[in-house]
Amino acid sequence: MSNPAGDTAPVLVGVLYDFPQADGGALFEEAVRLGLADVADSGRIDRPVELVGRQARGLPAGTAHDVERTFAALADLGVLAVLGPSISDNAMVVTPLADRAGIPCINYTGGEHTRSHWMFHYQVGSLEEEPAVLVEHLRATGRASVAVAHDHSPVGRRYAEFLTEACATAGVEITSSAAVSPLADDLGPVVRRLRASDPEALVYLGLGVAARAVALGVGAEGWDVPVAANSALMFGYARRDWRQGWQDWVYVDTVADDNAVRARLRQRSPRTAAGPIGLAAYDMGRLLGEAIARASHLTRAGVRDALERVKRLPAASGLDATTMGFANFDHGALKGPYLVLRRWHDERSEQIAGA
Questions:
Q1: Which region holds residue 348: left if phi is over 0, alpha if psi is between -120 and 50, else beta?
Q2: pTM assigned to the model
Q3: How do strand 105-107 and strand 81-83 relate by DSSP bridges?
Q4: 165 sits in which H/E element
Q5: What span, in angstroms and rounded, lies between the C-alpha atoms of 187 and 96?
Q6: 202: helix, coil or strand?
Q7: Nearest C-alpha neighbor of 205 from the set 226, 230, 186, 225
Q8: Sign of CA dihedral 328, 325, 129, 66
Q9: What is the pLDDT along the chain (355 residues), one digit of tens a residue?
Q10: What is the DSSP string of 313-326?
Q11: Strand 11-17 to strand 313-314: parallel, antiparallel, or no bridges (unpaired)?
């Protein structure tokens, strides 16, 4: 980005990765910079914006302590804002730290319970809304009973709680449920127990690693059952080798084929527009760029207040009517139809028409 003042100090923005990135975060930061550039190119940012990435090994495979240590390191560098974490378990760790330090953060998890005075939330899925979307789909396709496998973690438990409420509202019976390790690689016995309850469909809820084990168990059992899953199946964008096991599994995504912002982004950067995390990073770059441009005082508190002044930006995620912005006591970015039903079919993600 150009520096019109020559020697003006840059705005430092931290990027907190809560699990190791194979590319060091290069693709994510490229997408963020594209979003920042959209604002900078309008001439409303008077200094460069520099991204400072740091990687932690957070939950579930790592520790909360490593997330805490990494956040503290970013705070000590003087960043005005932080993007991350991406997993709700770790956002729950960072939220009180952000409030205590007075640093505006935008996490890109599924958990609305991560929001606070200083913690903003770009919803890559929703622990609270996705279960209702899945139950509506199951009911619409004639399924009146389900068996449920969910991660034994804060994410999995919250999904399961909201699925139970959605099923009760829609009159869908839960025939059996099982809490499984989020890092499980063999769930054959669990799948057999769930099958024995004779459900009309199977639901998986969690971070996604165990979804692979569920698929292997279903395949080994030869169980021909409709399967619905939460946004964990977005893993399929990165793990092509997992897609075959999820053949015709319906899941919640944030990528829509009709989104005009995404279509324009695809012309500039096909790999940024190809999946949900690239879209989220681009949108978060735009949100943060708008806050920097609107800040009346270029401080952490000034950026926090300016984020609440961003309204109704067309989003790259979700169906075409989705917008984003924040407000006082409203720190969820995406507004409107941002959850999209898709299925994995022949190792490709297909949007479900009319869903």
A1: beta
A2: 0.96
A3: parallel
A4: helix 154-170
A5: 35
A6: strand
A7: 230
A8: negative
A9: 445 445 899 999 999 999 999 999 999 999 999 999 999 999 999 999 999 999 999 999 999 999 999 999 999 999 999 999 999 999 999 999 999 999 999 999 999 999 999 999 999 999 999 999 999 999 999 999 999 999 999 999 999 999 999 999 999 999 999 999 999 999 999 999 999 999 999 999 999 999 999 999 999 999 999 999 999 999 999 999 999 999 999 999 999 999 999 999 999 999 999 999 999 999 999 999 999 999 999 999 999 999 999 999 999 999 999 999 999 999 999 999 999 999 999 999 999 987 7
A10: EEPSSSSTT-EE--
A11: unpaired
For residue 241, the tally of other CB atoms under 10 A from its CB is 9
Q: Which two tokens stand for residue 44?
A: 């409303």
Cβ-contact 259, 282 below 8 angstroms: no
Residue 24 identity (one-letter amino acid): G
Residue 141 has a CB neighbour count (10 Å cut-off) of 12
- Cα(first)–Cα(last) distance of the chain, in Å? 40
The span from the CA of 178 to the CA of 160, in Å, is 10
The span from the CA of 283 to the CA of 287, in Å, is: 6
CA 17/CA 58 separation, integer angstroms: 9
Distance from C-alpha of 42 to C-alpha of 25, rounded to nearest angstrom? 26
Rounded Cα distance, 234 and 213, in Å? 15
